[in-house]
Amino acid sequence: MTPSLAAVLAAIALLMLPGRVGAVRRLHRLRDASSDNPLPQPTSRAVPDPLGVASALDLLAACLRAGLPTASAAAAVATEAPEPLASALRRAADLLALGADPVSAWEQAIAGAADESVTALARMARRSARSGTGLATAVGELAERRRGELEDAAVARSERAGVLIGGPLGLCFLPAFLCLGIVPVVIGLAGRVLDGGLL
Q: Which residues cross the membrane (predicted)?
């Protein structure tokens, strides 16, 4: 049997199976499997990275340590940062590139932002613009603090899970303890008491 005849027969068999929509899906899967890109395409949206803000802040600190101006560093990091931080960095970079005062640029950048990391970054950038201190060290410390908060939250969730699992485990082991540990002792004592004529 030639390969082309086998492919035609396979396509007809797929179309003959129940459901037209299912046949079309199977044909698409068959075509995608034989294409140059054998990896399946993701069908669902990616889960946001909880450490994305800390990573973006580390990247911003690295850019500032490398000598980039604040506007260029903020614009570079904004492309990969998670959303509340990305929009604030983008606005600040645009305002700074236009020549706005750094204090007012960072104040306008966080207008309406509810994320604590964004407001802390803006507060540090305003303080750095007023005093002339380096921003890179403060941004690195902010990233470490964000990682510490996430670690503390993860530890708290795991400890809470350990407490919550104690109830069902107790409900499972208590009847077994009663049936295998207490009841035989009580039956044995009751047998001795009743046989010995104490009652």
A: 173-194
Q: How many CB atoms lie within 10 A of CB 185?
A: 9
Q: Are 92 and 106 in contact (CB under 8 A)?
A: yes
Contact between residue 121 and residue 53 where contact means Cβ atoms under 8 Å apart: no
Helix, strand, coil tally for the chain in percent (to 5):
75, 0, 25
C-alpha closest to that of 140 among 36, 63, 35: 63
Q: Determine the Cα–Cα distance for residues 172 and 64; give it in Å rounded to an integer.
A: 57
- Determine which of 88-92, 131-135, 142-146 has the lowest per-residue pLDDT on average: 131-135
> How far is 15 from 8, CA to CA, in rounded Å?
11
CA separation for the pair 159, 33 (Å, rounded) = 45
**11 and 26 in contact (C-beta within 8 Å)?**
no
Model pTM score = 0.59
Tell me, what's the pLDDT at 109? Answer: 79
